[in-house]
Amino acid sequence: MKYETPPRVDGRVPVLSAPDAINYIKDESTLCILGAGGGILEATALITALAERYQQTGTPRNLSLISPTGLGDRAERGISPLAQEGLVKWALCGHWGQSPRISELAEQNKIVAYNYPQGVLTQTLRAAAAHQPGILSDIGIGTFVDPRQQGGKLNALTKEDLIKLVEIDNKEYLYYKAIAPDVAFIRATTCDSEGYATFEDEVMYLDALAIAQAVHNNGGLVIMQVQKRVKKATLHPKAVRIPGYLVDIVVVDPDQTQLYGGAPVNRFISGDFTLDDGAQPPLPLTQRKLVARRALFEMRKGAVGNVGVGIADGIGLVAREEGCADDFVLTVETGPVGGITSQGVAFGANVNTRAILDMTSQFDFYHGGGLDVCYLSFAEVDSHGNVGVHKFNGKIMGTGGFIDISATSKKIVFCGTLTAGSLKTEVGDGKLTIRQEGRVKKFIRELPEITFNGKIALERGLDVRYITERAVFTLKEDGLHLVEIAPGVDLQKDVLDNMDFLPVISPDLKLMDERLFIDAAMGFVLPDATH
């Protein structure tokens, strides 16, 4: 769809209010929105103006929505305000769960709904910028995005195949169609009068450039929200991430904040200040810390790893308590390299970060097998070692970067609890005590849909572990092997009776290290890498 953009005067990019900018959006447009959880790079003023305009006028209608990264707060923010029948008819997202109102439309079959792996989706936007029809990748083979399974379709309303299986030189690949967006909502901190933009107060860059290029090169409309505007050509060229010729409209929001509900900018998160390591109090000894501690045992000196959102995200803090955090590098798929990993909805808002890459390049590194180890949370595991996270109890969460990361990491460490739903445990005195068992078994016989394929991982020579608060498993050709059990736990009553299948019990079954269960520094020494 070709857009007539507002004219520039003397090279100056038009500056409009958010409602006036929204007036340019046509019915049936494809809108791509930049941003991540917790308000990271979210153009909130634009999203709010679009939602309000539709409420008041019923236009624009029937938009197609592309969201590479999960915006929102797992409630009413992010793209949840756009969850109005008739406003959005179609959506392709990397992650869905941060904006659950949109997910509900998909669950109710009210919109067409697709899920690409987050890294693949950002790469298809880069492809759209280059007028390429799509990308070829082996990321996603054997999972729910494989057309031999669900093909990335999230509900019965979704019919068109966007993903195809192809074979080149006797190797299977997935072809992911690139969808060219017509309109972009992006955000930066500062722009000059010609639209050149910098991100000095932002948490990261995500794929702002890829989105802007994709929309611009396909004749669309790029609307950029910023916090302030300065004189032409006064920004340092090395700080500029968006060249002005990509931008059609600027909306200045002086109240723009770095994250939801906070000060305009936290200088530790923006990378301007370095947090004293001693300022971080130790994590309380809970089942969450217990899992993170045991996960740290899988790390090696000099390794490059990824940590995902959820129970695994405490590993960096545990490593700092043990004095070994500087002996390896943890990355986040959205771009941060090193530092102290944040927790919660603003995941990725790290402090003491060593570098920040654009998200598309970060995923290039992941897809090529650059990761030595990854730490990912799981929702369900089946008897074949398959893992499910994108759908759980009928709720659409989406894969995020889970498929991209787990497809090629040399060691994959899945973290979680053995059961869920009101599980209560006590950790201390060298043992685990289960005060109240969870209502829901997470180790089930067969997954209905697969986000991680255990068989494919073994074929690729990957090392797969599953760490819970009471048991540790490894994946072999004949299924899950139980290799460790927590002190204080009964094998039959507390482990096997809470699984829907019987794992192979290792003849060398060991107790988990007692230090994990004592509320003091473990004195853990990071092992050297083995090559």
UniProtKB/TrEMBL annotation:
**Which superkingdom, per the lineage?**
Bacteria
InterPro entries, per this entry?
3-oxoacid_CoA-transferase, CoA_trans_fam_I, NagB/RpiA_transferase-like
Q: Where is the active site?
A: 333
What keywords are annotated for this sequence in UniProt? Transferase
Can you name one GO molecular function term for this protein?
acetate CoA-transferase activity
Please give the catalytic activity noted in the UniProt record.
Answer: an acyl-CoA + acetate = a carboxylate + acetyl-CoA
Q: What is this protein called?
A: Acetate CoA-transferase YdiF
The species this protein was found in: Intestinirhabdus alba
